[in-house]
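Worked example 2:
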Amino acid sequence: MINLCAIGWLAACAPVPSDDMPLLRNPDVPIGAITRFDLDLFAGRWDIQRSAGEDCAPVGFEIADATWRERDGEGAARVGMVEPIGTGILRIDYADGSTGDLWVLWVDPDHNTAALGDPEGQFGFVATRAGAVRSDQIRAAEQVLDFNGYRTETWNNT
């Protein structure tokens, strides 16, 4: 009888299912941006290999002269100004007036593969330099994202 009561009590504490999109990231897991981030080395063109998030539809991005330019599947671009607000944390002020913070959670020493996201878990992605795609580095980026509370097993390949 005690076991049944305990099971009932635990079931009452379980989260209520919702129709909302599931979180990409467990908010109870601490998240941190990489400390060896260098914006000058990070500048240039990137292609997104894996991604998730309602607002994360780009297939790539480019950073040049403090300008952020996202590319979507049709070649259209969303443009903004990028400003470092912390080590490995960038604020993007888009031309449409919206803003977003992008956290660089990991980047390989050569700045060819990166794991990126946001603390709220609204989006996340793995990006690589064109011509520098390495499956071991993509897997390393996924592992860092998973360590930071993301659930990359359901992400899209682009």
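The longest strand covers residues 44-53. The beta strands are 44-53, 60-64, 67-71, 77-86, 89-94, 99-107, 113-117, 123-128, 156-157.
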